[in-house]
């Protein structure tokens, strides 16, 4: 098993710590509540890593903005899954994230090894709206501004259905503005040792990109794992991909409303 990571990566770095200094002036967000919300869960990858054909990708949403509980109105807090734990990467409007820690494991279940290019998307405010407006064919995300349905979704970011045209290495290289929204952070090679049952990659993440430390309009943080046809030809990779993730959320009584 071999790994190559870009030295400029901001994903695989040291843990950040919260700050308690609020200054004298009123901030946009003030954490007046005393209880922290615990997020701790295991999940499988979103997408189909078990039949990852050439050009396709799978992804993990590490943290994302959530405006309201389904069935609620504007800024209705989420309910815990059980006990005081929230088994979700969704963070309520205004919440601050700290003590983030996650381990991603990718295991080869096939007879063919291959490379996976890893891309980070760290977005906030209207990044995804601008991205999807300027180059929708190269944007794997959508920005919602709808209040229709079971919840107020304004400002939430949701991944699109996966296609082989949404992440293309040379398209990202062509556009400097695109590199602002999706950054290559490394490449891993998953071997096919032990008859296709032993190749495994483990990735530890314990640093949050600065723009994603607060859950605010448009906040989305995720990692995308791409089977690039230039690296692997037309090979289909057969993988299992899981994440074990935990972080704490400091809720805020003050938060910014959505601006149309």
Question: Can you tell me about this structure?
Answer:
The structure is a single chain. By secondary structure, this protein is mainly beta. It has a single domain (2-7, 39-79, 89-250), classed as Jelly Rolls (Sandwich). The chain has helices spanning 127-134, 169-174, 176-181, 193-196, 229-232, and strands at 2-5, 37-44, 57-66, 90-92, 96-108, 114-123, 141-143, 157-159, 182-190, 200-205, 220-226, 239-250. The strands form 3 sheets. A 6-stranded mixed sheet has the order 1-9-6-11-3-4. Strands 2-12-5-10 form a 4-stranded antiparallel sheet, with no helix packed on it. Strands 7-8 form a two-stranded antiparallel sheet.
| SSE pattern | EEEEEEHEEHHEHEEHE
CATH class reads Mainly Beta
Poorly predicted runs? 5-11, 13-26
Mean pLDDT: 84
Within the CATH hierarchy, at the fold level, what is the topology?
Answer: Jelly Rolls
**Number of domain modules:** 1
Q: What kind of sheet is the major sheet? A: 6 strands, mixed
Q: In one word, what is the shape?
A: globular
Descriptive labels:
single chain; 260 residues; mainly beta; Jelly Rolls; 6-stranded mixed sheet; 4-stranded antiparallel sheet; 11% helix
What is the element layout, followed by pairings?
Blueprint: E1 2-5, E2 37-44, E3 57-66, E4 90-92, E5 96-108, E6 114-123, H1 127-134, E7 141-143, E8 157-159, H2 169-174, H3 176-181, E9 182-190, H4 193-196, E10 200-205, E11 220-226, H5 229-232, E12 239-250
Parallel strand pairs: 3-4
Antiparallel strand pairs: 1-9, 2-12, 3-11, 5-10, 5-12, 6-9, 6-11, 7-8
């Amino acid at each position: 098993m071999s790994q190559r990571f870009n030295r400029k990566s901001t994903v695989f770095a040291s843990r950040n710590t919260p700050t308690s200094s609020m200054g004298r002036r009123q901030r946009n967000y003030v954490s007046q509540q005393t209880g922290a919300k615990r997020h701790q869960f295991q999940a499988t990858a979103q997408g189909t890593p078990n039949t990852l054909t050439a050009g396709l990708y799978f992804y993990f949403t590490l943290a994302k903005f959530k405006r309201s509980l389904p069935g609620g109105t504007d800024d209705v807090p989420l309910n815990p899954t059980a006990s005081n734990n929230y088994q979700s990467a969704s963070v309520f409007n205004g919440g601050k994230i700290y003590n983030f820690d996650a381990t991603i494991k990718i295991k080869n279940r096939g007879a063919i090894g291959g490379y996976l290019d890893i891309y980070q998307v760290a977005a906030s405010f209207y990044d995804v709206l601008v991205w999807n407006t300027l180059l929708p064919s190269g944007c794997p995300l959508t920005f919602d501004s709808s209040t229709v349905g079971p919840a107020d979704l304004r400002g939430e970011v949701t991944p699109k259905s996966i296609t082989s045209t949404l992440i293309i290495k040379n398209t990202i290289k062509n556009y400097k503005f695109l590199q602002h929204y999706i950054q290559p952070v490394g490449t891993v090679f998953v071997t096919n040792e032990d008859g296709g049952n032993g190749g495994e990659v483990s990735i530890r993440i314990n640093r949050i990109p600065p723009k994603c430390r607060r859950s605010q309009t448009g906040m989305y943080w995720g990692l995308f794992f791409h089977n690039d046809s230039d690296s692997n030809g037309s090979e289909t990779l057969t993988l299992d991909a899981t994440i074990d993730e935990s972080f704490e959320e400091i809720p805020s009584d003050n938060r910014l409303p959505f601006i149309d």
